[in-house]
Amino acid sequence: MAALIIGVGNSAVTIGLWPVHAFWTYYSLARTKKIGPILKAVMLVTLVVPIILVPVTVVLGSILVGLAYGLVAPLMATFEAVGEGHENKFIHCIVDGTLTTVKGSCTVVRDFTDVCFHSYFSLMDELHDQPPKDGKALDIDLLQLPGCVLAGLLGILLDVPIITLIAIWKAPYMLLKGWFRLVQDFIGREGLFFDVACLPFASLAILLWPLAVVGTVLAAFFSSFCIGLYGAVVVYQEGSIQLGSKYIVSAIALFDEYSNDLLHMREGSCFPRPEYRRKKKSSSGPAQTSCLPDKQRTDSAHREGNSIPHKCIPERTKSLKKTFQRLNSVQIWDRLFHSCEFYGRALVQDGVIRFSDIEEWISTGKSRILSVGLLAYSILQTLLHPVNFDSLNFLVSDGAELTKSDRADDRVAEWFFHPLMIMKEQIQSYKLEDREALYLSKLALLSNSPERMETWKNGGIPPSDGVKKAELEGLSRRLQGIATSVSRMPTFRRRFQNVVKVLYQAAVETKSVNLNTVRSLPILKSKNKLGRQYDSVNKKQAANQYDENNV
């Protein structure tokens, strides 16, 4: 059922929007000023292949995702049903995970639809509306195109079959090596078998290990196309077809060497590895320090004046309890929306976020102040929180402190966490006064509406120093850039819709309270300007006028 719902739903959305997406992609690419004419012409020609492959990829990928989700989600629910605090465990093992999996499949289709309808067009609007960075469009040299095409074709013809054969040749060893390691951990109660709760999953890993080996071979096959095509990039960067040919040969040796390291086989490779770069990177540079031990890497970073984030050495055995104490991406994602809801209600009650902003988001799905401004404002308040202002930690909405050690250990969280760490260090270096921090809050929320910035009297005053003012404006733009990127993520619109519902209810309650207050105000009974207006128009308009005069 999950494969049917996700496969049919995502396929219908993709095929239905495919003509619109194809036309709008070409239109946006032809109109953009970020890309030069030569590169634009090349992309317009080569874009035909990915556009044709998109429906096929989505259909096959949706079916596979549906099958995987339909198997894993009920399996997890079954293990939860036999835990403590459940009666009639046998019934729960059968019932739990069925209806929730069906609902989750519908949620996947809805999030995919939001991406196709909103995130895609947001990206395309940014592509053809924003000017090029530093005023210089990205372009390529036309004379180097033939050499790049030749190197790309040679890379595919040589690297794809050889890398695939290497992966197939080492697959039996990987199968036996993995089984040996899993059985060894099972006997010694280490690794996946350390905790009792993980025993079913670890046992399942032994049974499904051949599928992992097959997936590794397929991944090597598909990635070999990218490895081979990168020869065209080397030719363009170095300006030499000879160096590009050396890369094609060297890529095979690199893959062989890395696979040997992964499987703990002999070091090095039997394939030649010629140099394909004119200038070798310095061995003392920060790019090479990751291969050094922790102490040497730290000393090297101090000598060069660089700050390399600390990375804990992964332990071979880790308890399940300690693992669950870390904040995962889902928890951070939940706290982000709780923060938007908390600060949004306060801004609605203060009249900063107006009823028209909420109605605009409900009717059109777009509101710069809500989708981007409120999110950037919430992130900024987390950075400016007085409890953690002097530290590099973050205090999320429910009081939990997010640090380097307990943040989510994945690429998505790192992509979100690392820019905020840099931004918090910048805010600390600015040594903002209270009025400057309030002014930065204005910029984060209402930078696209100067008139409303003037009417919001929150005590924020721009700094007298022009350089510092420009730094605060640049910081607010980076905050809004992060908020814009977050607003394009798959589940954002569905989750943010719940936030808008809460803000709508708060706006209605605030509006009704203000209306009752206005009706009882003595000033409206006098013969001043506002009183005459109240006598001539209906009470609702007078209440709105009173609200605007007192923002």
Tell me about this structure.
- A two-stranded antiparallel ribbon has the order 1-2.
- It is globular, with a radius of gyration of 29 Å.
- The chain has 551 residues and is mainly alpha-helical.
- It starts with a helix and ends with a helix.
- The chain has three domains: 136 residues, no CATH class; 147 residues, no CATH class; 170 residues.
- α13 crosses α17 and α15 crosses α17.
- The C terminus is likely disordered.
- It is built from 20 helices and two strands.
What attributes characterize this protein structure?
mainly alpha, 551 residues, 3 domains, 71% helix, 1% strand, disordered C terminus, 2 strands, two-stranded antiparallel ribbon, 20 helices
Amino- and carboxy-terminal Cα gap: 53 Å
CA-atom Rg in angstroms: 29 Å
SS element count, helices: 20
Spatial strand sequence of the major β-sheet: 1-2
Report the count of strand segments.
2
Topology order in helix (H) and strand (E) letters: HHHHHHHHHHHHHEEHHHHHHH
Shape: globular
Number of separate structural domains? 3
How much helical structure, as a percent, in the residues?
Answer: over 70%
Instruction: Summarize the main sheet.
Output: 2 strands, antiparallel
* Average of pLDDT: 76
| Beta-strand share of residues | under 5%
Furnish the topology, listing elements before pairings.
Elements: H1 2-31, H2 37-46, H3 48-81, H4 89-95, H5 99-129, H6 145-188, H7 199-238, H8 241-262, H9 294-304, H10 320-324, H11 329-349, H12 355-364, H13 368-383, E1 394-395, E2 401-402, H14 411-430, H15 434-446, H16 450-455, H17 466-487, H18 492-519, H19 529-536, H20 539-549
